[in-house]
Specification:
Layout (H helix, E strand, L loop, with lengths): L3 E3 L14 E5 L3 E4 L35 E4 L2 E2 L4 E3 L5 E7 L7 E2 L4 E2 L17 E7 L8 E2 L4 E16 L2 E5 L3 E3 L3 E10 L3 E7 L1 E4 L4 E4 L18 E5 L2 E12 L6 E2 L3 E13 L9 E4 L4 E2 L52 E9 L10 E6 L12 E5 L4 E8 L9 E10 L2 H4 L4 E3 L3 E9 L2 E9 L7 E6 L12 E5 L8 E2 L5 E8 L8 E8 L9 E3 L2 E5 L21 E10 L2 E9 L4 E6 L6 E4 L7 E2 L3 E2 L7 E5 L6 E9 L7 E4 L4 E4 L9 E10 L4 E6 L19 E10 L5 E2 L2 E2 L7 E2 L5 E7 L11 E2 H6 L1 E2 L2 E2 L4 E10 L1
InterPro entries: DUF11_rpt, GEVED, OmcB-like_DUF11, SpaA_PFL_dom_4, SpaA_pre-album
Pfam families: DUF11, GEVED, SpaA_3, SpaA_4
């Protein structure tokens, strides 16, 4: 923490130097002298108002040197000073007997000296509050040694609570009157106490009253330090308003009259600074008692490289004086360290203490995580929450993906205060609260996604990414079961520099043998990540955070390795199934082919009804493939081949003479379910039969042919096979018509050209056999079988 100091336009004090004593007006407040103050000659000050703090917390004992903020010049219209953090202090004086302490109209220069009398070292030439404690009754009243005459009160009203403000005095005490010297007594009220930090100041009444320590204080700070009422005193506690009872005191050991005392007052307040690397900008908070964690550790005094060679802040510094390469320049009390960032969301339950209800305040807690590691805190990296009291306050972030997330060592900032507009900015000064910066680790992440070819494929798969981080705030098991196309493990946070395994297994009802499977990984830029192992299990090493140890500005050279996207692709192998259809008959037929088509038989059982063979998984997709039917059984011919389910743009080329069909590479694309139908036709012979009783006139009976009743006539039946196939067992049947008497015992003769077509049985052939039907032998193509028999005309 550091301090802020107020300043006022320079004016010189008059010749009468007078010491004024303050008394704190809130419970437990005390003032400690920190440095020397000298009272020099100068005019008395016109009445002015001044405001201060109310006590919340009392801190005693030796106090550390702190970083501080010094007040600016006095606004004489309002008796108010401001700070770079926009904290304000208004001074209000009230009457007393015999006179009233007043501020100098137009304010005046502080005129403190030497610099070592003040802690922190302030701008000794700045314009600031100047007060005049009037002499009692025009210096006609005798005051006993060590005694005082009341001179009213001064109240300092702070716009926000402050803790342990330090008052820096110049020219406290002076000469004049019969006593020879005087000094202002400042008495803290409500039990508050002072602690003298440096200079010629001292306390009495249990450290509640502050005064110049010398019994003969000098009138300027240029006099010997031992007698100059110049120095620093701390008022112990937490305040929003402080009332100090003012008295003009007699510092000597004998009774006498005393004259008015004029002196300058500058107030500094402790400052807490951010300590992340300088690229993140400066954030500073006035110590108001509102803390992250149970307490606030104030920062050491600023180095003397601050502008003007002083240790105060007149304007906000461009960079934090506590900035460090690892955010270790300040003590953090909210957390020992921050949890590692995983995936999805990130939450912190931030402890808040020292809360007060402050008029006009809008308490707020905000946090930033540099997710993209660009060395600055951005609005999109912020999470805020209102604060209504002490206890834990939740901050929640949605962890980004894509280019706004860069894995590695980064930084986070927490800001707490009573003024929302200040706390919601990652940089700048705030009039209250605390800031804490932390290193934070952002883990790389890996995702495995399922891709199926075709996307409509119903296959289910189990995906795995191991080992997931066990330390991230929110992690991911890295395993999902029974997912189809588009299924994913989602992002899985991974430890740095670890061998990562991405793999898949078949889910319910799925066989990997039906697919060609592969896994490929790319980084965020789309560059291929080299993989080890093979098939459905692949390995690679996760990002190795570089450089080792937290850098001043986070390293983003390996940003694209923050997210590794892996895809497990399963392309369903094409299948082929043969369907056999036979016409005019049934039978068993054989098939084979290339690209993994096994030899197999298909038997038809019903003419015209197709029978499907087994589904064959092709060895490779997008590969030319041929299906061939074995030579056909006798009497069959291949009527046609047709294929369906081809891949987009695929073609099937039919070769009927060779009983085959050729599928091109497009036809056998992944996921193709090809069905090829072979239609075989059982051939039917064209048999012709004629009958005549005038064979010499031709095979057919003559028109208007007449027979004499009672005559015996001979009939000739001719059966001719016109092809295209031989026929065995064709049945010839002839039933005599009316007007003919064909005794059943009459013989029927048979001959054929070529021979062999006549029935082997019965033998001989009788008319009764012909009437019932006689099966012929084999009628080859072109064979003619002739049967003759005789009948009587009735």
């Amino acid at each position: 923490m550091r301090s802020q100091q107020n300043t006022v336009p320079r004016q010189r004090l008059g010749e009468h130097a007078h010491a004024i004593v303050f008394a704190a007006g809130q419970d437990g407040a005390t003032i400690s002298s920190i440095g020397r103050l000298r009272i020099g000659p100068g005019p008395r000050f016109a009445p002015r108002a001044l405001a201060w703090l109310s006590a919340l917390l009392v801190l005693g004992g030796a106090l550390p040197v702190s970083a501080s903020e010094q007040n600016d010049a006095v606004d004489t219209a309002l008796n108010r000073v401001s700070y770079a953090s926009l904290l304000t202090v208004t001074a209000v004086s009230s009457g007393g007997t015999p006179g009233t302490t007043s501020t100098n109209v137009g304010a005046a220069a502080f005129d403190g000296n030497p610099p070592t009398a003040y802690d922190p070292r302030i701008n000794l030439g700045s314009n600031t509050f100047n007060f005049m404690t009037p002499s009692p009754s025009g210096s006609t009243v005798n005051v006993v040694g060590g005694g005082q005459e009341a001179a009213g009160s001064l109240t300092f009203n702070f716009s926000r609570p402050v803790v342990n403000p330090r008052f820096h005095f110049a020219r406290l005490g002076g000469t004049g009157g019969s006593a020879g010297n005087s000094t202002t007594f400042l008495t803290a009220t409500g039990g508050a106490t002072w602690t003298v930090i440096g200079g010629a100041l001292s306390t009495t009444l249990g450290n509640t009253r502050l005064r110049a320590s010398s019994t003969a204080p000098s009138v300027t700070c240029t006099d010997p330090a031992s007698t100059s009422g110049c120095g620093t005193a701390q008022l112990n506690g937490s305040f929003t308003s402080v009332a100090l009872n003012i008295g003009l005191g007699n510092p000597t050991t004998f009774t006498g009259t005393i004259t008015a005392d004029g002196y300058g007052v500058t107030i500094t307040v402790d400052e807490d600074f951010s300590d992340a690397p300088t690229s993140y900008g400066m954030a500073g908070h006035v110590n108001s008692g509102l803390t992250l964690g149970a307490s606030l550790s104030i920062d050491p005094t600023l180095p003397l490289t601050i502008p003007n060679g002083t240790a105060y802040i007149a304007t906000p510094p461009a960079t934090s004086p506590r900035a460090s390469t690892n955010a270790a320049g300040d003590t953090d009390n909210a957390f020992a360290s921050l949890p590692i960032v995983g995936v999805g969301s990130y939450s912190l339950s931030v402890p808040v203490a020292g809360f007060q209800t402050v008029a006009g305040a809008t308490p707020q807690l905000c946090g930033w995580i540099d997710f993209n590691r660009n060395g600055s805190f951005e609005t999109g990296e912020r999470a805020c929450a209102g604060v209504t009291g002490n206890g834990n306050v939740a901050l929640n972030w949605t962890i980004p993906t894509g280019a706004t997330y860069v894995a590695g060592e980064s930084y986070a900032r927490l800001r707490l205060g009573y003024t929302t507009s200040q706390v919601q900015s990652a940089t700048g000064l705030a009039d209250s609260g605390e800031v804490e910066d932390y290193p934070i680790t952002l883990l790389p992440r890996v995702r495995l996604t399922k891709a199926l070819v075709p996307t409509s494929d119903p296959g289910l798969f189990n995906l795995s990414v191991v080992p997931p981080s066990a330390t991230a705030v929110q992690t991911n098991t890295g395993a999902v079961a029974n997912v189809g196309h588009g299924g994913t493990t989602d992002w899985v946070p991974m430890p740095f520099g670890t061998l990562i395994t991405v793999s898949e297994t078949a889910g319910t009802g799925t066989s990997l043998s039906n697919y060609t499977s592969s896994i490929a990984c790319t980084d965020r830029s789309g560059a291929t990540v080299p993989l080890g192992a093979a098939g459905t299990t692949r390995t690679f090493f996760s990002l190795i955070s570089a450089p080792v140890g937290p850098p001043t500005t986070p390293n983003t050279a390996n940003a694209n390795l923050s997210e590794i996207s892996c895809t497990a692709t399963n392309a369903r192998l094409p299948t082929l199934q043969v369907v056999k259809v036979t016409q005019n008959g049934v039978g068993t037929f054989s098939f084979g082919g290339s690209n993994g088509i096994a030899n197999h038989d298909i038997t038809t059982v019903t003419a015209g009804t197709g029978v499907a063979g087994p589904v064959q998984v092709l060895t490779a997709a997008s590969t030319a493939t041929t299906v061939t039917e074995a030579p056909l059984p006798a009497g069959y011919l291949l009527g046609g081949i047709s294929c369906s389910g081809l891949g987009a743009g695929g073609n099937a080329t039919v070769d009927l003479p060779n009983r085959s069909v050729s599928l091109d590479a497009a036809a056998t694309a992944s996921g193709s379910a090809i069905v090829c139908t072979f239609t075989n036709i059982a051939q039917v012979a064209d048999l012709a039969i004629t009958k005549t009783n005038t064979p010499l006139a031709g095979d057919n009976d003559q028109a208007n042919d007449t027979l004499v009743r009672g005559a015996i006539t001979q009939y000739t039946l001719r059966v001719t096979n016109n092809g295209p196939v031989s026929v065995t067992g064709a049945v010839v049947r002839d039933t005599p018509g009316a007007g003919l008497n064909c005794p059943s015992g009459n013989l029927v003769s048979c001959s054929s050209v070529p021979a062999g077509a006549c029935p082997g049985a019965p033998s001989p052939i009788l008319m009764s056999d012909l009437t019932a039907g006689v099966p012929l032998g084999t009628l080859s193509v072109g064979t003619v079988a002739t049967l003759t028999f005789s009948c009587t005309v009735l």
